[in-house]
Amino acid sequence: MSKLVCYAIATVCPSVVGLIISGFVSASAVYGQGMGFQSTDLHQLKSVGDIQMSPNEDVILYSVTTRLGNGRPSSEIWAHDLRTGSDQPLLSGSGSGARWSKDGSRIAYFGQLGDRSGLFTVDSDGSNPTFLAEVQGTNHPLPSSGERLTWSSDGSEIAFISTTPGPESAEANGDPVVITRYLYKPTASEGLTKFNDNRRAHIFIVDVETRAVRQLTDGPYYEHSVDWSPASDEILFVSNRAPNPDQVFNYDIFAVSATDGAIRQLTQTENAEYRPRWSPDGQSIAYQGTRRGLTSSETTMEDTHLWVMDRSGLNRQEIGADIDNRQGPPHWSTTGRAIYVTVQERGAV
Known about the structure:
Elements (H helix, E strand, L loop, with lengths): L4 E4 L5 H9 L2 H7 L14 E8 L5 E8 L7 E8 L5 E3 L5 E6 L5 E8 L2 E8 L6 E4 L15 E3 L5 E9 L3 H4 L26 E9 L5 E3 L8 E5 L5 E7 L10 E7 L5 E3 L7 E6 L5 E6 L15 E6 L20 E2 L5 E4 L8
Parallel strand pairs: 1-22
Antiparallel strand pairs: 2-3, 3-4, 4-5, 6-7, 7-8, 8-9, 10-11, 11-12, 12-13, 14-15, 15-16, 16-17, 18-19, 19-20, 21-22
């Protein structure tokens, strides 16, 4: 493995700063009306996040999240043109999780159009929305999960996360109802769900042209945090394969063949690993990791640091060890000689 440099992001593109500030303009306007900040004003706040730069670095996609009343917040995808400085919604409806294809010609996202919801694509200018696949969720907690979709290098396929019924589903929906799993901190329907839905998160692949969908992984576990290799032969994912995953929290990193579903386990540690990303040449993998075995679904019990390893899972190195703060998800430079991470410092990032 060649020597890598870990960069903590200390400066931000002015355009990105403008995007972040714009999310709070409505709050300052409300507060400045002389009535003070009221609890109902919270519904007017908008937050900006999930910033995604286009491959040619001329357009930034970002999400705008709004809570207009009771119920779950809604999210829209916006586009900021770095050439003109203009901002506009990418879509006519709601959407989230937008990701560019490798050539920048298409954008995949999760959204709703008419009576259909799930995985869509649009052209880079927001035109030609195309429904690809239905996507199901789960109320089971998957803390610190990463990417929900990832493009193949040639843009012909998209891997995404959806769910299927688990082995307990039949008894849990039978008569009498048999409950064998607890639900930690229910979040679906704003906490109205009392029982685990027993659905399992798996990796699916959809052909962008034919819209044919195939399920790549199955079984009693949850797979998430995906990243497709530059050679398009394997997809990285994270899964808790502990003997009793409801009681023991231990994420490990795996790679699954995109053709036959064969799985390689890359880490097998007592600590947790998160959000793996391939290097541009596909020979190394960067990820967040911890050292101690003590962690839980509640929170990561220590600061996550930046780690790298060979694609085989060997030669693991904690290259973020010199920065004694919590480090965010890794982002490789285009040359593969540097990795960028955010760093938390006294409550700020």
